[in-house]
Amino acid sequence: MLIFLIILLSSAQGSKAAEVITPYSDYQSAVEGESVTLSCSYTGSVRGLHWYRQYAGSPPKFLIMDYYGAVTNADPPVDGVSIQHRKDNSSVDLNISSAAVTDSALYYCALEPTVKGNPLHAVQKSV
């Protein structure tokens, strides 16, 4: 039996009006076991690119971020999740290597930390 995942994307504005991040599509579906790439494009000069996942009835949870080229994963890291910042076309991808039913959720791409507990401060200390 084929299982389809519906993955919704949402976006968040940065602290400056010129910084906006926008998903390429409003939803994505996949067959279980396939790899899935969620993409957002942005405008302006950005420092950090963040990805969050939110299950129905739960708050968003931090997944992964790219901060000036340094990748920080959630603690503990989410298996099968990676980030790719493509500066040449001002976009960021969230890659899910082998989609599962448990990956069905709302995903947020953001330019700024959007939930408490984001590891941004730890990254700033190491840069």
Automatic annotation (TrEMBL):
SMART domains: IG, IGv. GO terms for cellular component: T cell receptor complex. One of its GO terms (biological process) is adaptive immune response. It holds the Pfam family V-set. Transmembrane segments: none annotated. InterPro entries: Ig-like_dom (IPR007110), Ig-like_dom_sf (IPR036179), Ig-like_fold (IPR013783), Ig_sub (IPR003599), Ig_V-set (IPR013106), TCR_variable_region (IPR051287). PANTHER family: T CELL RECEPTOR ALPHA VARIABLE 16, T-CELL RECEPTOR ALPHA CHAIN V REGION. This is Uncharacterized protein. It comes from Cirrhinus molitorella.
